[in-house]
Amino acid sequence: MPSKWVELLTAARKTALLQEGRRKIHFTMSDGAELLEEYDVRSNELLVRKWRRKSALGGQKGWEYEVGEADLTAKFAALSHGSEHVVESHENPICFRCDTKKLFQWRIRNLPFPTSTYELSIRDQSIVVRTSNKKYFKILQIPDMERYGLSLNESELSFAHANNTLIVQYKKPVEIITDQDMLMVEFKKMKVTKEGDAECNQS
Amino acid sequence: ILQAFRKAIGVRIKEETELIEGEVVEVCVERPATGTGAKIGKLTLKTTDMETVFDLGQKMIEQITKEKIQAGDIITIDKSAGKVAKLGRSFTRARDYDATDSQTRFVQCPEGELQKRKEVVHTVTLHEIDVINSRTQGFLALFSGDTGEIKSEVREQINSKVAEWREEGKAEIIPGVLFIDEVHMLDIECFSFLNRLLESDMSPVLIMATNRGITRIRGTNYQSPHGIPLDLLDRLLIIATTRYSEKETKQILEIRCEEEDVEMAEDAIAVLTRIGMETSLRYAIQLITASSLVCRKRKGVEVSVADIKKVYSLFIDESRSTTFLKEYQEEFMFNELAGGDAATMEIS
């Protein structure tokens, strides 16, 4: 019995592309939302997963990153030519998710405080990161767990701090790992266009 | 016209927006030393749990200086629209006795993350939805005002979508009012188009105003009452207007005085009403501002009868102007009545 997430992905319209050592797969859902996933060709690890959803009035919004690091230069460019009004400064901690096969993992860069300041807990089905000096606070949600309807368990959570970076890890449950492997097999079967493959007739 | 029609219908809809809410720790705006070029702004915000530095865009810097936002204020920023709202002062700053007036509200410093998602109900017109959907870069077009033509397919699509939202209870439709003044200026094509629009199920209340009697419909040779074709006229309710009575005129003038913050003595209003009745209401209304200026010049508090008399002698009304013009017509340029000899003299 496939899970809802697998069903959603199989029902979507898909296109795949091999580029820069990444397997890029683009999904278009029935409600018009777009999903882009990028996997490393060699290790098959998920590098990027980003969504573009339609706003309530039908307008387009920008990409929202679920996994992977967003391109910040575009944001600063938008600030200088006036289409964005407020952007977090580059001095701030940057948080993004980068999963491994067995773990959900977040890296929070630019956090210079010592390891003892961090407190991690689980509240309302999400991970709460706070610092005892009241400088940083973040709620990390795991959309994957929500999609499977699984609840979080504090014993699966761990963290480490080194090189101004806080790494938060949460072990993936078995259901997610098996589905992930199964999807990977499916994706490999897809017909892919390689870079420079596309026909581009001049006349 | 269709655009105006669609502007007149509002749709109330819920949408999620990103808000930044927090207490200001520091605002800092730097101007480049050369005096030209963009300003650089930095804003540090905090909640009880965290602190973040933001880089500000030009529009944001302007707003922050305009709203006089300073350290200790609790503000919210609407991220997509770029709007700042001041909620009040932080409780932790309640000790600063200086520079707090009675209107200052003290607010608790917010908790948790700075960036929040909130459901906001806002009202948009059908036309705005059309614009957003007509192009991918629709948002930009909405601000620059340049929309181009909106295809009828897009409109139909929006209609069905809005109807769907209404059934699901996601949106609420507010029929508006479209007011067309000087309606006799429309031509026959506009009228037949209006006929069609009025029959659609999402049509606003239409009010038309005209001061013509039986005239020609523009674009045809037919005569019709009010310059409106009979078939459209049949679908209208005609509201006749009458002249204002003295009491009504007085009331209008009183409202107008209040609106313009002019204090007027009781007898001055009576004089003004009399002027309004004898000449025109527009003239009387224009006298209000003028007389209040005269009153301020003599450092009076209340506009008196003398002020109005003075203004009445300074500015002439329509009928006095006509008699005046008739009298002195010959001395103006380009006069046609006695045109003959004036022209020959100039040539020689």
TrEMBL record, chain A:
Q: What is the lineage of its organism?
A: Eukaryota, Metazoa, Chordata, Tunicata, Ascidiacea
PANTHER family per UniProt: PROTEIN DPCD (PTHR31921)
Q: Which Pfam families match?
A: DPCD
Q: Which family does it belong to?
A: Belongs to the DPCD family.
Give the protein name, as stated in the record.
Protein DPCD
Superkingdom: Eukaryota
From TrEMBL, chain B:
What reactions does this protein catalyze? Answer: ATP + H2O = ADP + phosphate + H(+)
For this protein, the Enzyme Commission number is 3.6.4.12
Major location, coarse class?
other
Q: Which SUPFAM superfamilies match?
A: Nucleic acid-binding proteins, P-loop containing nucleoside triphosphate hydrolases
Classification via InterPro entries: NA-bd_OB-fold, P-loop_NTPase, RuvB-like, RuvB-like_C, RuvBL1/2_DNA/RNA_bd_dom, TIP49_P-loop
**Cell compartments where the protein resides:** Dynein axonemal particle; Nucleus
Q: Please provide the record's keywords in A-Z order.
A: ATP-binding, DNA damage, DNA recombination, DNA repair, Helicase, Hydrolase, Nucleotide-binding, Nucleus, Transcription, Transcription regulation
GO terms under cellular component:
dynein axonemal particle; extracellular region; nucleus
Any one of the GO BP annotations = axonemal dynein complex assembly
Q: Which domain of life is it from?
A: Eukaryota
The terms under GO molecular function for this entry are: ATP binding; ATP hydrolysis activity; DNA helicase activity
Identify the residues that the record assigns to the TIP49 P-loop domain, covering every copy. 1-246
Domain RuvB-like AAA-lid residue range list = 252-317
Q: Which Pfam families match?
A: TIP49, TIP49_C
The family this protein is said to belong to: Belongs to the RuvB family.
* Protein's name according to its UniProt entry: RuvB-like helicase
Which source organism does the UniProt entry give? Answer: Ciona savignyi
Q: What is the lineage of its organism?
A: Eukaryota, Metazoa, Chordata, Tunicata, Ascidiacea
